[in-house]
Each structure stands twice: as structure tokens, then as C-alpha cells.
């Protein structure tokens, strides 16, 4: 009889938690009049003003799969599959400080 089991690295609902994410963005805009009806808007945007690089998503962790294939006294009583190469690896990051400069014209 074959039996397979995946070994978990944590208890149910007791996984490692990621840090809190607080995002603060700022925008500064200045309007300059051009002639009789035109306008030029100069803008500076600052994204994620107070945070450093934060991990927002990580691949699941596991220890691999242990499989018992046959009786204990047989030639190959069990096999082991190593965990995925991406187990526990960071998957998504919130970038640190980002600036954007912009110009917009209105006629």
C-alpha cells in the first residue's frame, strides 16, 4: 500500500506573518498660465514616502514529500522529494521611495 505525506513547517494557521505595510504618497502641482487661455501644469509625485523595501508576498514553505512505497523490509521502502526551489523565496516587493516628474498642457 502506498502512502504519501507532505511535511509542513508550521502548525495550522500559525505561519510566519509578513510585516505591516503603510503607504503614504504625496503630490505637488503648480499651474502656470500661458497666454490668454492656456495652462501648463508641473507636478512632482512621491510614492511610498516613508517605507523602505517591504516584502508583500512570499512563496509557501515546505520540507518536501516523504513517500512510503511498500513494506519496511523491501529494497526501497521509501522515497523523498525535495522541496521546490522557490519554497520560502520572496515573490513580490513594495519598492522604496519613487519619484515621478510630469508636465501637462491645457489649451
Give the secondary structure arrangement, pairings included.
Layout: E1 2-6, E2 26-34, E3 38-47, E4 54-58, E5 65-69, E6 78-81, E7 90-94, E8 98-106
Antiparallel strand pairs: 1-5, 2-3, 3-8, 4-7, 5-6
Written account of the structure:
The chain is mostly beta strands. Helix content is 0%, strand content 49%. The protein has strands at residues 2-6, 26-34, 38-47, 54-58, 65-69, 78-81, 90-94, 98-106. The strands form 3 sheets. Strands 1-5-6 form a 3-stranded antiparallel β-sheet, with no helix packed on it. Strands 2-3-8 form a 3-stranded antiparallel β-sheet, with no helix packed on it. A hairpin with an 8-residue loop joins strand 5 (65-69) and strand 6 (78-81). The mean pLDDT is 79.
Summarize it.
The protein is mainly β and 107 residues long. It contains no helices and eight strands.
Strand order of the largest sheet: 1-5-6
Strand content: over 45%
Helix content: under 10%
Average pLDDT works out at 79
Please state the CA-atom Rg, rounded to the nearest Å: 27 Å
Number of helices: 0
Question: Tags for this entry?
Answer:
about 0% helix, about 110 residues, three-stranded antiparallel sheet, single chain, rod-shaped, mainly beta, 8 strands
